[in-house]
Amino acid sequence: MTEIAESPRSPYKVKLVRGPFVRLEPHPEECADEKAFLAYAERLRSEGKRLAADLFCGAGGLSYGLESAGFRVILSADHDREALETHQHHFGGLTLDWDLGDPERVKRVAELVARAGVTLLAGGPPCQPFSKAGRYKIRHRVREGQRDPYDERRDLWRSFLEVVRLAQPPAVLMENVPDMALDREMFILRTMVHELESLGYAVEERVVDTWRYGVPQFRQRLILVALRDGHHFKWPDETPDKVTVWNAIGDLPEVEGGWRPEGGADGWKEYEQPLTRFQKKMREQVPSTDAGKVFDHITRPVREDDEVAFESMSTSTRYSDLPDEMKRYRDDIFRDKYKRLDENGLSRTITAHIAKDGYWYIHPRQNRTLTVREAARLQTFPDGFRFAGPPSAAFRQVGNAVPPFLGEHLGSAVIAALDDARPAAPTTQKVAETLATWFTGLVHRNVPWLTASTRWQVVSAEILLDRMPPQQSRSLWPLLKRWATPTDTLAAETELREISRWIGRERRGEQLLAVANELVGAPHTLSDDELLSSVAGISQVVADLAILTVPVSDDGDEVGDTHDSASEEPVLARQGVLRVAARVSGEDVHRRNQLTDGRLAVARLIGYGANARSAHLGLLELAASLCRPVEPLCTECPLQNLCVSSKADEQRQQLLY
């Protein structure tokens, strides 16, 4: 292993689970240095192998899946000593204990990726929240066409992008937690897509449920796939059968909490035979000499009072349901502190937290928490896969891993896409440009306050005119537009009440006056993105629309110019916008998974470049005008050529006539 630093302690401050300390020998095809690595890569390429690199590799769940799909993982990097020892044992090539927050390390990794001829760059960079100031700096550079100077920060998703920029491999695969993408502005994901597209990649992203690919647990992951040269990527088909907890671990022998085998790390528990298809797959690579053995089938001891509590629990029992004498924690905070897994259902998500106490993962039939091997099975690690370090380190590596089954499906889909050079759909930048051009060229709008100059005008129109017939709202908008501030509205109270009576919306008029009264006493609230929705009478939806339509400058002044704004544009997943996204994509994102699939579909239409805000406003106008719920005006729509539903309607018409 190259430059592995001996750290005096684990970076994870977790009380260790005592037990055998597993030490693993390096893989027979380990490369001692970069020269040997490049020779190794050249030999594999000459044999027709597709090469992959796995950054932030952890123990190697993604690497194992990619190799099962047909890649050879020859380069890996992380900064966790025990996880790297595990990875180095199972995979050949060069394993680097490098901090990829260091710009010089990033450059060297990119050089190795390029010189080795790596086809697929994969990884799951940890993602830290970004400050508003940091987001603004990046967004400004993106919109001005400038490259973000990587060395100003140590955010590891930036490191991953920098390696892509420098090496430009044919394919990129990134996995992460959904929260990386689903913040209010979807900042990191939209930035990544924009920069990858600017480098010439076709990008697809999706939040996937891993159980749909044979993983026996509820676990969602954000997956981003980028293919160079405009290759089309098709998401892998789902597996037909859902694997349950008992399908996965029912063949493993019973053990008591705290049981340890004789022989330490080389010890085992007697094993009989696999019964289900999943169990047989878990045993495929086990050597014949170990057919009657199962390793790492150990877990933490069980306290006597916990054993009594576990005995009383069914799969539906919550911690708060236990008798008070059985509780060691506050049940108002830890309502689900204990969870017995349902053998006929999916496991809850296996996370690194399992290294701490395991109470979320009580065995479905035995009064103990899961063993290392059971947790590994639920993550789809085969039984021959061992983990370096003490049991706590093994649990942590399992919980942090990408399920190998998911990696295998994704790797196979990437290979299929590279072998089938079909052109990809237009980029988000192109779609956003189309929407923005259409919107800015409109003469008459069904939602005319999308061109308002103050946030108060947007709030006023949304409260008083929302869902009004377009002809009426267009005629009334000039009257409301005169009142640029809450003070203006209160000064025209008599006229506002009269307008409200004309249109039969007296209660809305009263609501508007009440909001104006509150804002007159706190005028800064209108320019504060975080406080605006806290005002009684202003919903989050209305606040987000005002923020999107009228951004603010660094000093808090409302401005209409996108380039000078410091406020972030939220991604609005309103019902009308979701309807447009569903029709364009051909997926029913307006009916299911609106906060995940729906928002991702909207983000694909608006992008994150100079056209993003205008494209977003255009999407709102499109939903209110042409893309109606019934009888949409497809022939006038700027997205007609991209719209799956429009093309399907056209084909049906051709069949009829």
TrEMBL record:
Enzyme class per UniProt: transferase
Active site: C127
Pfam family, one: DNA_methylase
Keywords: Methyltransferase, Restriction system, S-adenosyl-L-methionine, Transferase
InterPro entries for the chain: C5-Methyltransferase, C5_MeTfrase, C5_meth_CS, DNA_glycosylase, HhH_base_excis_C, SAM-dependent_MTases_sf
GO molecular function, one term: DNA (cytosine-5-)-methyltransferase activity
PROSITE patterns cross-referenced by the UniProt entry: C5_MTASE_2, SAM_MT_C5
Keyword Cytoplasm: no
Domain of life where this protein originates: Bacteria
Protein name (database record): DNA (cytosine-5-)-methyltransferase
Lineage per the UniProt record: Bacteria, Bacillati, Actinomycetota, Actinomycetes, Kitasatosporales
